[in-house]
Amino acid sequence: MEIKIQAIHFEATEKLQDFIQKKVSKLEKFSDEIRKVEVSLKVVKPETAMNKQTAIVVAVPGSELRAEKVCDTFEEGIDECCSILTRQLEKYKEKQKNR
Length: 99
Description:
- It is built from two helices and four strands.
- The chain is elongated, with a radius of gyration of 14 Å.
- By secondary structure, it is an alpha+beta fold.
- Helix 1 packs parallel to helix 2.
- The protein has one domain: Double Stranded RNA Binding Domain (2-Layer Sandwich).
- It has a four-stranded mixed β-sheet, covered by helices on one side.
């Protein structure tokens, strides 16, 4: 599984990148068909609360699963996106089983 992290308009710290790697790699236990994960981090409106936009796109055969959140911190956004993607991966897996 390839994990690509893209920070828009700022430089992501090593600590943040490690956090993302750790959280996103946990998605692999829900589906071993994940080919690529793209994480994009963006600061929306500087100097305000709730200005960190997090988007995660998971590429699986025949589909792309996507989650997007705007939160106070990137860590919070990553957590919420991962829980959304966990549910989506479970549904995807169920659909694959029924084929």
